[in-house]
Amino acid sequence: MPRGATYQETAHQPYFAEWFDLDAARSGAPSFDKFCRDVLFLLTGQPHPRP
Asked: Cα 18 to chain center, whole Å?
């Protein structure tokens, strides 16, 4: 975001979502990785090991 700009969800979120790197987020945040594994377990019923 440029300095002084205000975040506007409807204008900025599509761009942020397009560039979001899920693998980088999971490897950089163990709690986010656990969340992803738990969601996958809820959806599939299969435990997923840590990457």
From this structure: 11
Quote the pTM value. 0.64
Q: How far is CA 24 from the centre of its chain?
A: 9
Is the Cα dihedral 37, 38, 41, 43 positive or negative? negative
Mean pLDDT over residues 8-19, rounded? 90
Give me the helices (H) in the chain, please.
9-19, 22-28, 30-44
pLDDT confidence tier of residue 47, bands split at 50, 70 and 90 = confident
- Kindly tell me the burial class for residue 36, based on how many C-beta atoms sit within 10 Å of its own C-beta (0-12, 13-18, 19 or more): middle
